[in-house]
Amino acid sequence: MPETARHRGAALAVLSAASLMVVLDSSIVAVALPVIQTDLAFSAPGLAWVVNAYLVAFGGLLLLSGRLGDLVGRRRVFLVGLVVFTAASLAAGLSPNATTLVIARFVQGVGGALTSAVVLGMIVTLYPEPRARVRAIGVYSFTQAAGASIGMVAGGALTQGLDWHWTFYINLPIGVAALVLTPLVVASDRGLGLRTGVDVLGALLVTAGVMLLVLGIVQAGEAGWTFLTIGTLVLAVVLLLLFLLRQARTRTPLLPLRLLRVRAISGANLTMVVMVAGFLGFQFVTALYLQQVLGFDALATGFAFVPTPVMIAAFSLGLADWLNTRFSPRSVLVAGLLTTSVAFLYLTQVQTSGGYALHVLPSLILMGAGAGMAIPALMGLAMSAATPEDSGVTSGLITTTQQVGGALGTAVLATAAATRTAGLLGGGVPEKEALASGFRVAYSFSAGLTALAAILAAVILGRRAAAPAAAPEPVAR
């Protein structure tokens, strides 16, 4: 194997491992929440902030982090993110009380955003050849698609085998190894330079807007559509509209609006929001069904999801290159989304007396196959029209839409399931039957969301998008 291929393979391995570490963190901690609540005396509302503090910081800073990578160098931003994330993981594991843990989780989210926002842009730069890029994006997509399922297995094993502190300590060896290896295998990049101008006001508007958007969606799923929830979402929309207005007028935009006029970028991001809303909501609902209806414990629930990442690996790592070469990425994307929609429709038949092998396993296999086809194809389409100067912000944008879609899907599906269950319980229906009925409603939503994503992909990405207009020359302030 040529030296250049070995070098690029090592760089891809380091970038993917760091990305997987960040993805794992959201699900690996979720399994340990009941034990954390007991040990640190969390209140029920306060416990949610172990997850929410991370999500708000992570989602809110992705776009800014991606643009910073374009300006000061993606490798530099990646390394800073690794330092922050690893140090915050240590602080979280050592937390003596609830307040310290929530603060550490927020800082983890900051580090996770800095690390994750630039990875896809670095991979695209590392692999300019189309076929090699497809394979590399397949590896990256596997970390994104399978990370949550792997995290549930790891979280259950660490929590039951050791204790909850290790759900954070597990990040330390990965983070330190990535910090040591990155300067050795990932080439440095200069970036455009801060002298080209930084849109500070735009950065403040989009960061606050996305943070409030994620917070409002999370609140809707947990507390319902209260005045506070609606007010938070309205303020988020206002800030994001002001951000877009600012981007249209400033000479140094954080998000050049010309990118949104490119069908491959705007269409892929819209499809991503809807697709991930169906995908991540499914994981949340299925974990509840396995535990509350079928009686699985945390470790068994984690292992129950193993078929999904195995199938994702088979398609995204083994078949993505062939599929996207033999067929168009759009065709592979639509086929993958329709496959996942069938998986969700099958899950609408779950019963209180059902078994894992009959009612759940076939859908997990289909889900893995569909996600393994759809996610690499969509990632590739999202980055296909990005120029080298904009690959960081384009990477940050697609990662932001992933997070918003995940938060939205979890909130919508949880609300739909809870509403149906509460109505049946009020009518005297037995608890398990009421729960199962609520989950069936949630699966119907997931099936609809992924079918809608397939329609959006077929229509919006139906014609070959033109490349984005060249970036304008920097204007001195």
Question: What's the structural domain tally?
Answer: 2
Write down how many β-strands occur, each being a DSSP E stretch of 2 or more residues. 0
Separation of the first and last Cα atoms = 49 Å
Estimated radius of gyration? 21 Å
CATH first level of the largest domain: which class?
Mainly Alpha
Quote the beta fraction. Answer: under 5%
Largest sheet: none
Helix proportion: over 70%
The CATH homologous superfamily of the largest domain is termed MFS general substrate transporter like domains
Listing every helix as H and every strand as E from the N terminus to the C terminus, the arrangement reads HHHHHHHHHHHHHHHHHH
Label the structural class.
mainly alpha
Which architecture name of the largest domain does CATH use? Up-down Bundle
CATH topology (level 3) name of the largest domain: Growth Hormone, Chain: A
| Low-confidence region ranges | 465-477
Our count of helices gives 18
In short:
By secondary structure, this protein is an all-alpha fold.
List keywords for this structure.
mainly alpha; Growth Hormone, Chain: A; 2 domains; 18 helices; globular
Characterization of the model:
It is found in: Cell membrane. The protein folds into 2 domains: about 5-200 and about 255-460, Growth Hormone, Chain: A (Up-down Bundle); about 200-255, no CATH class. The protein has 18 helices and no strands. Mean pLDDT is about 80; it is low at about 465-475. Helices cover about 80% and strands about 0% of the residues. By secondary structure, it is mainly alpha-helical.
